[in-house]
């Protein structure tokens, strides 16, 4: 695993390369705000953009991509199937709606947003169909715990290639990460900054001073060194650029272990086993 620069990537099981640093767009407004943030990220060098139908900003994300001089084939574009759209036929319709809003004819990665009981297997069959018909380059899940993954993989045709989870120093879930690694499922972080709460904690101050880097940069570097794809969200160009300034230093093994040891099993988002679907 080599961490090189902003355009670097991890290889998925099927040989597709997924850029390990992306722009998250959750809660970015579907207007000039998200259009500009996507354009700014691509201008800075990002090549991975993450959205979801639930975010209600796919139109803006698509417009930002269209307005950018970066070629579509050089961008890794991700969206997700929302809970109310799950099921076989409804997932296929959701996919069509998403690519229409995004103004593209294929996706690089399509994820099931949450493991909706008694629906996610039918949803997965639809993702397999889209993958087999080359409408998507890779398929995966989000917020799936080990028992969800085991259940899904017990009778699927194509194993998930990615699992996007809440991941930060207070919620490492190393056992789940190890399970994903064992099954060649790329781990990906959402909410790497605990929805902003990490900036109120003093446990990172010494590391920030030691490396001459911001708390955000320390955490994102930790993500990458653990082999985790990360998608920090910002709509401010200077922060988008700052989040990418993480390729000129490396955390020591001792500091990596320190950050791992902060794990409290503490969530800032919903629990996948107790989510109001």
Automatic annotation (TrEMBL):
Keywords: NADP, Oxidoreductase. The keyword Oxidoreductase applies. GO terms for molecular function: oxidoreductase activity, acting on the CH-OH group of donors, NAD or NADP as acceptor. It holds the Pfam family Aldo_ket_red. InterPro entries: AKR, AKR5G, Aldo/ket_reductase_CS, NAD(P)_OxRdtase_dom_sf, NADP_OxRdtase_dom. CDD domains: AKR_AKR5G1-3. Belongs to the aldo/keto reductase family. This is Aldo/keto reductase. The lineage of its organism: Bacteria, Pseudomonadati, Bacteroidota, Flavobacteriia, Flavobacteriales.
